[in-house]
Amino acid sequence: MKTSLVLALLSMFALGSASLLSGDTTSRQKPSPPDGELLYKTHCTRCHSTPPSLSDRQTRVIVRHMRVRANLLSVDYQAVLAYLSQNVKTRD
Amino acid sequence: MNRRLLLLVRYSLVLSIVPLMYSQTTVPRPIENATYDESVPPIPLVTGGISFTTSFESGTQDLHPVVSPIFLIPIGRRGLIESEFEMQTEAIHDSSGFGPLHLDKSLEYAQFDYFASKYLTIVAGRFPTPFGFYKERLDARWIRNLPDPPLIFPFSDTSNNGGMLRGAIPLKGGFQLGYSTYFSAMSNNEVAGSDRQAGFRSSVFVPKTRLEVGFSFNRKLGDEHFNSFGSDLAWNLTRIPLDVRSEALFSHTLGNGYWVEGAWRLARYSLPKFLRNSQPVVRGEQYFTPSETSAIDVGLPGVNTSRVSAGWNYYLTNSLRAQFSYGRQFAQDDNHNTWTVGLNYRFIM
């Protein structure tokens, strides 16, 4: 019975995941430029509130920390860092 | 067994069907041309949280201060040392006065992260267990929506001494596959103890709908070997400002349970400031003990337990939050109410 439970759970998860991997036509569109603000809202504020204003150098280490904690894609990490770096208050 | 099977099937169906509903939606992936001045070096800093909560149950009052500083030290362009140390105490007051005070100290994590490639981060040291997402992402007092963690949280409220590989990989259609796989050695250290165990968590994230579905596996390798399985869901709805989070635990040895939580972000509405700074939260959860008695005690309830909780968070500033919550617990011979009031402060230095 235990094996059946495991297999049931794994196959259902695989089913859901496989549907995401299935190809589609729109995915071949030309990639749009990174929207750092959108990615920031997508990845950061879905777990916590907006952080206090940080300096550019503080921002870099916080975003590096969150790259690990939130399993950010490398490209998203760079876009969020670029967005926040361009919008930081000058506290250095 | 029938109850566990039903629970498992229900929960897994929800986790599987929701992504199917969104499998036709796509979002173009950004290209890698984000720019920032790479000559500006990151600096070490101290961040973390300070929390004080007080809970009222029938005949007792509980005072619970927690301090948890986090140290972040960047190493070169690809490394990071991060560490969190947590100190807390619990003063329980009843008809005979305050009980004895004990200062609990624990090293939540002290890890070195090396960004080996775009898709791989190598972690060594002491790190939180990536079983579900509550421990890694929501456990911080200034992040969690309700002061009390879920009933099944004690299972994943552990840290590991060992190594971990983790990262995220872009998939077709803008989806993201996240993964974490780890091994931990046994340690009886009072502040930094760990179990001998191995496991992984994998997840699929849909950025456009802000939906993440995860699956976790853990195998204890100590004196008693057993497997545990977990599934989790986090969905930040975009049409209505509602955050839905859920986790489930399935284990022949530890029992089964789940929690589902909803939190509203009223800041998006055109409301008076008082309401825009507010966040109502509700959570429902159940835990079922294993059918066979086990000698392993990780802090899960000893009897079948259900709990409903409702809370209200008020953001005085982005870094200072007041929390109020009410919970009603249903268990054999132990139905009781809990009222909690708290303050959470997040700092960065």
Mind explaining what this structure looks like?
The complex is a heterodimer of chains A (92) and B (349). Chain A is mostly helical and 92 residues long. Chain A has a domain at 33-92: Orthogonal Bundle (Cytochrome Bc1 Complex, Chain D, domain 2), CATH 1.10.760. In chain A, 60% of the residues lie in helices and 0% in strands. Chain A is built from four helices and no strands. Chain A has helices spanning 2-21, 36-43, 56-69, 74-86. In chain A, helix 2 crosses helix 4 and helix 3 runs antiparallel to helix 4 (74-86). The longest helix of chain A is centred in the N-terminal third of the chain and has 20 residues, at 2-21. Chain A starts with a helix and ends in a 6-residue tail after the last helix. Residues 14-28 of chain A have low confidence and may be disordered. Chain B has 349 residues and is mostly beta strands. Chain B has a single domain, classed as Porin (Beta Barrel), CATH 2.40.160.10. Chain B contains four helices and 18 strands. Chain B has helices spanning 2-21, 134-138, 153-156, 273-276; strands at 45-57, 60-75, 79-89, 91-94, 97-98, 103-115, 121-128, 159-170, 176-185, 197-206, 211-221, 225-236, 242-251, 255-264, 278-288, 305-315, 320-331, 336-348. The relative contact order of chain B is 0.14. Residues 15-32 of chain B have low confidence and may be disordered. Chains A and B meet through helix 1, helix 2, helix 3 and helix 4 of A and helix 1, strand 2, helix 2, strand 8 and strand 9 of B.
